[in-house]
Design goal:
Layout: H1 14-48, H2 52-86, H3 102-110, H4 112-131, H5 135-143, H6 158-192, E1 196-197, E2 204-205, H7 207-234, H8 249-278, H9 283-312, H10 316-319, H11 321-334, E3 341-344, H12 353-358, H13 375-382, E4 388-389, E5 395-401, E6 404-412, E7 414-415, H14 427-433, E8 437-438, E9 440-444, E10 465-467, E11 483-484, E12 494-497, E13 523-524, H15 528-538, H16 542-545, E14 553-556, H17 561-568, E15 573-574, E16 579-583, E17 586-597, E18 606-607, H18 608-612, E19 626-627, E20 629-639, E21 645-649, H19 655-663, E22 668-669, H20 676-680, H21 686-699, H22 704-709, E23 714-715, E24 738-742, E25 751-760, E26 768-773, E27 782-786, H23 797-806, H24 808-817, E28 822-826, E29 830-834, E30 837-848, E31 856-864, E32 867-871, H25 874-882, H26 926-948, H27 951-974
Parallel strand pairs: 3-27, 21-22
Antiparallel strand pairs: 1-2, 4-7, 5-6, 6-9, 8-11, 9-10, 12-14, 13-14, 15-17, 16-17, 17-20, 18-19, 20-21, 23-25, 24-25, 25-26, 26-27, 28-30, 29-30, 30-31, 31-32
Helix pairs in contact: 1-2, 1-15, 2-4, 2-5, 2-6, 5-6, 5-19, 6-7, 7-8, 8-9, 26-27
Length: about 1000
């Protein structure tokens, strides 16, 4: 029985069509408006930093991929639907009184153009949105270069695996998607129009439907043959063996031949489908398909499993030797470990006081200040105003001041709008007044102001000085432009510049509150269109209606140095710890950039996040991406005043960087443009070093058999200064590496280097010490001091910390210092090669338990050869270990303990730069006079409580002193 004629559906009126169109346009605007807004704001920002070529290249590549993948999937689906429609049966037999598909068939027939175009367009849109995200892969394929290294199995250049093979796999994946979508679309269309019927025994299929679908299946199987061909190369990245990455014995001797066999069977199967389609015989394709499935199970799965179980595992150390050797070589090259300088070091020494005293390379430069502890100290002592602040972790760098090179704890004094008081928390203050920081702070890393000798002495603070607009040479380092608009604490936007008398003026100093920005940073916001755009972006109507915004006004956003570098170079992995440096009188943020891969043949894959995770806080954490190649090929600078981003090439041999430089020509400057002053402040990046030391724990071994046994593997020790760090069975975080200025064995002078101790696998004694130089002369040179495996073992960091904790002198002093109102903070435990042995140095800080307190250095612990020294200075601790006079080589406090001081070591002094007490009452301001009297009375009560040993009274007196100091500051501000 034939189907009844299609029922004509009512047509929409003109008014209804207009309303539906308007509704569709509104929905489209709502869906795409935010995307267009973000795109325009990004376009403005890239114009600010002079990197619109990056923006346009990425955008055009995404658009091209959107249409390419969309046309592939949508176009093939449209062709499949058209074939199914044009070859539909003229008469559609039905079973029963009515055809359940008749109403749907009628709807499609009356709206052929809508369904024939709409469905493929919808599928194409979904495919385009998905495909445009792979712009990096396509650009690397188009601009890839040669590595001039060949893989050991197939002899292809490494560039084939890095640049070409991923693209082939991506393209093949989209071809699979397109064929599958076309097959499903054709199958449903044939079913709808009667080409496929499920009624009757086994159903029925028309000849045209059989040809159409068989051809699509044949094409799919043919693509499967191509996939088997490419899978042969992907075996070099196999993770079959958990010990190493790369093709195993089973992969090479079972899986690889299986791929070739399945390739041939797939080609035969595809031909069978093509022949069967035109001979109208499905028996041959069915036989071929069954053969392919059985072969995949037997040859592709069963045979490799049998070989692995009965041949490889019983003899794995021999069977996998070649694969392990390939993995070891590739891993060392991929991670830059092929040039490591291994040196045997006994580590045992009986150093005399004279030898220690004569050490002018390491001992005088021992770093006592911990950059991870002193942020609060810097904030309280040199931050002054409440809206200035410092990152949670400060930085270590080296400077030559007065002809002497030494390491400094450095920080930029940034604006911190989160520190504004409630009466300062309005929109104008947050975004137009408090816009920038002011000053570069530096403190010698090897000394403090004075030592804490007794319970009534004050000291233990860094000698931190500031170069700012009022005193450009205050820190001993000249800063011509100390204003900081771009920094790690700048998480919000700022509107700067404008016309005098119209703009509120930016806070610059206590005497100048009307500064207007004149730099090149920021995006113009002095036209109504941009004001409307940014008002919509931030949901802030004040941007649109504020009279303070006018001619010359600019808006600054994306102000974090890491974020700026990541946007300018989206193909880089950025180090988690930018640091400020003064270059030619300007504060520059230095940011390290890495090129990474995850498809370097035979190189060991590692998790970026796990390899860089340790106890260090205040740094950005890396994502848990799998990588097996890394190069610190780019050094970036971000100007703290105008936000200028410069990328410099520091690895001329990195093929990945060369490829990206082809993609974005002119974005990365050649290394020849790096000034000598800038190069002097390059540090070997921490994340890079963490990755390399993690790999070194395994890849220092020399033979495959030794590697397979894992007996001589090393381990990164856990940080014993952190909670749980002394328990070997805990999951405490790893000890971070430390920057030090030291003279290691084989060096002729002190060098700025990044160092770490290593211990044997599952043991706590010291196995090796690794360092990498940051000096321009031998930048990046990795040196490993290997200790003997037999005989007396040297104590590792955890064992030394245990010895510190059980030392009688320290135990007694810890009880005195660590009372109910004081916390003890353990600083970084440094491991330094000195006089043929290893010297451990750990500063001990104390901090009052109140919101206004901050750490101060109280004691120093030293260990060498099992002997422990504990004193208020490094000099004294060295004397205890090596004998009288040995501590003379160390840098002592800047001055001795103050005479007649009555301030407790845990007292928090007023947060001023010079730390002077307030002047006596002058009679001009009643509130100010009363605050001074309250401070003096609180000091008297504190002195009496200290003399009596009453800790409760001390706490009450400190609280009164803090409250009086706050009233004094408020009275000062109120008085003008």
């Amino acid at each position: 029985m034939a189907t009844r004629p299609p029922v004509s559906l009512p047509k929409l009126s003109r008014r209804a069509r207009i309303l539906l169109t308007l509704a569709g346009v509104i929905v489209l605007i709502l869906l795409l408006g935010a995307r267009f807004l973000d795109t325009y704001i990004d376009w403005l920002w890239f114009g600010e930093v002079g990197a619109r070529n990056v923006f346009s290249t990425v955008l055009l590549t995404r658009i091209a991929l959107f249409f390419a993948t969309g046309l592939l999937v949508g176009g093939l689906l449209a062709i499949s639907l058209a074939i199914a429609y044009r070859t539909r049966p003229v008469f559609v037999p039905v079973s029963g009184a009515d055809d359940p598909l008749a109403r749907y068939r009628s709807l499609v027939v009356t709206r052929t153009r809508l369904f024939g175009i709409g469905i493929p367009v919808l599928a194409g849109l979904v495919a385009g949105v998905t495909g445009q995200g792979n712009w990096e892969l396509v650009q690397l394929f188009l601009n890839g270069t040669s590595f001039n290294q060949r893989d050991p199995e197939f002899g292809h250049d490494i560039g084939f695996y890095v640049f070409q093979l991923p693209f082939y796999g991506w393209l093949l994946g989209w071809l699979f998607v397109a064929v599958v979508v076309a097959f499903i679309g054709g199958l449903l269309a044939h079913y709808l129009f009667g080409g496929i019927r499920l009624a009757g025994r086994g159903g029925q299929i028309s000849g045209s439907a059989r040809v159409h679908l068989s051809v699509l299946i044949g094409v799919f199987v043919l693509f499967k043959a191509v996939e088997y061909f490419l899978d042969r190369y992907n075996l070099l990245l196999s993770d079959r063996n958990s010990l190493f990455t790369g093709a195993t014995y089973t992969d090479l001797n079972a899986v690889l031949p299986a791929k070739l066999i399945l390739l041939c069977i797939s080609v035969f199967c595809a031909i069978a489908f093509f022949v069967g389609a035109f001979l109208r015989n499905i028996q041959l394709p069915a036989i071929a398909l069954v053969l392919l499935i059985l072969s995949g199970i037997i040859v592709g799965v069963a045979w490799p499993a049998v070989l692995e179980q009965f041949s490889v595992r019983p003899n794995a150390n021999e069977r996998e030797a070649q694969s392990i050797e390939r993995n070891m070589e590739a891993t060392r090259i991929a991670y830059g470990l092929d040039g490591v300088d291994y040196r045997d070091y006994t580590g045992s020494s009986q150093a005399t006081p004279g030898e220690v005293r004569d050490d002018q390379g390491t001992i005088p430069n021992i770093r006592l200040l911990d950059p991870g502890v002193l942020s609060a100290t810097f904030t309280q002592r040199v931050g002054r105003e409440n809206f200035y602040g410092f990152p949670d972790k400060l930085d270590v760098d080296r400077y030559t001041v007065d002809g002497k090179k030494q390491s400094y704890i450095v920080a930029a004094k940034e604006i911190n709008t989160n520190g504004l008081r409630e009466n300062q928390q309005n929109w104008i203050n947050r975004h137009l007044v408090y816009t920038h920081g002011n000053g570069f702070v530096a403190a010698p890393a090897n000394t403090i102001d004075r030592a804490i000798e007794e319970a009534n002495s004050d000291g233990g603070y860094p000698i931190a000085r500031t170069s700012d607009t009022q005193n450009p040479n205050g820190s001993g380092i000249h800063v011509a432009e100390p204003r900081i608009y771009y920094g790690e604490l700048a998480h919000d936007y700022a509107i700067v510049g404008g016309q005098p008398g119209q703009a509120p003026g930016e806070y610059d100093t206590a005497t100048d509150r009307s500064y207007l920005y004149q730099g090149t940073g920021g995006v113009p916001i002095d036209n109504w269109f941009n004001r409307l755009v940014f008002a919509a972006q931030y949901g802030e109507r004040n941007i649109l209606f504020s009279d303070a915004i006018g001619d010359g006004s600019k808006i600054m956003y994306n102000r974090d140095p890491r974020e700026r570098v990541e946007k300018v170079a989206p193909w880089l992995t950025v180090d988690g710890d930018p640091y400020p440096a003064v270059i030619n009188g300007r504060i520059q943020w230095i940011v390290d950039g890495y090129t990474t891969l995850n498809n370097y043949p035979y190189a060991q894959r590692t998790s970026l996040g796990m390899a860089t995770e340790d106890s260090l806080s205040g740094v950005a954490r890396q994502a848990n991406n799998q990588i097996n190649y890394v190069r610190n090929s780019v050094k970036a600078t971000v100007d703290a005043f105008d936000g200028t981003v410069n990328l410099y090439q520091v690895d001329n041999d990195d093929p990945v960087l060369k490829a990206w430089m082809n993609v974005f020509p002119g974005t990365v400057k050649p290394g020849s443009e790096i000034s000598p002053e800038l190069r002097e402040h390059f540090r070997y990046p921490e994340d890079m070093f963490k990755i390399q030391r993690e790999l070194l724990t395994k890849y220092h071994v020399q033979s495959p058999q030794e590697f397979y046994s894992t007996q001589t593997f090393w381990n990164v020790p856990q940080d014993p200064t952190q909670p749980g760090g002394l328990d070997p069975n805990s999951d405490a975080a790893k000890q971070p590496p430390y920057y030090v200025l030291a003279q290691a064995p084989g060096q002729n002078e002190p060098t700025f280097q990044l160092t770490s101790a290593l211990t044997p696998l599952a043991r706590q004694y010291l196995a090796a010490w690794v360092s990498v130089s940051s000096d321009p002369q031998d930048y990046g040179k990795i040196t490993v001091l290997r200790l003997p495996t037999g005989g007396n073992q040297l104590e590792g960091p955890v064992q030394v910390q245990n010895a510190f904790q059980s030392n009688p002198a320290f135990t007694q002093d810890r009880t005195l210092l660590g009372n109910q109102s004081v916390d003890i903070i353990y600083g970084n435990l440094l491991t330094l090669p000195v006089a043929g042995g290893f010297l451990y140095v750990e500063p001990i800080y104390i901090q009052q338990r109140n919101t206004q307190s901050y750490p101060q250095l109280a004691r120093v612990l030293v260990s060498f050869g099992g002997k422990i020294g504990f004193a208020s200075t490094l000099n004294g601790a060295l004397d205890e270990v090596f004998g009288a006079g040995s501590g003379d080589a160390a840098t002592g406090p800047a001055q001795g303990p103050p005479q007649g001081t009555t301030t407790s070591p845990t007292t928090t002094p007023p947060s001023s730069t010079n730390q002077q007490p307030p002047p006596p009452p002058a009679g001009g301001n009643a509130n100010l006079d009363q605050a001074v009297r309250d401070i003096q009375a609180a000091l008297e009560r504190l002195r009496a409580a200290q003399q009596s040993g009453d800790f409760t009274a001390q706490g009450q007196a400190l609280a009164e002193l803090d409250a009086a100091a706050q009233r004094y500051e408020q009275a000062q501000r109120a008085g003008g």
